[in-house]
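User: My instructor asked us to take a sequence, write out its structure as tokens, and then describe one feature of it. I'm not sure where to start. Here is the sequence I was given:
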Amino acid sequence: MGRAAALRRGRALAAGAGERGTDFADWQERTGERLLAAWQGTTIKAAHRLETIFRTNVQGAYAAGRFKQMSDPEVLRARPYWQFDALIDLNTSPICRSLNGTVRPASDPWWDTRYPPLHFNCRSGVRSLTRRQAAEKGVTEDPPPTAAAPGFANKPSLDDFTPDLDAYPDDLEPLVRRKLGGP
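Assistant: Let's start with the prediction itself. The structure tokens for your sequence are:
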């Protein structure tokens, strides 16, 4: 298995693990050996890489689900503002630290490039707010121009997702077909 195929496989398995509620240890046990062999790297470096792939993809799946919930027309009528919510500790990135607390209308194009995850291992999220909550917190008039890391800054889409089944490893294709309701 080449490196690109290994990465595709790892990402697909991590996203599936998020849907099933699989924790990192179980995912690593099922997936790790194959990816480590494909990467041909040191065990320590590869272990960090596995954890990054897992966490980033699970967080991305969670963020997409939250986006879909918060974008529901009824929810938007009741909660038309969003607040960037970073987990602040020693591991918080400068990107997320600078955006933390920003309150903008949910319809603001600012969110198009600042909806988490914004980098590898991003732990930030977005919470929806009522008009009253937004007024109490203060709508951010001049939001930070901080940019996401390269390869991120892709707000989830509400469009129907149709995966390219040819991009999935042979053993995952039947699972994807079943999930999509196909043969």
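For the description part of your assignment, you could build on this observation: The radius of gyration is 18 Å. Try explaining in your own words what that tells you about the chain.
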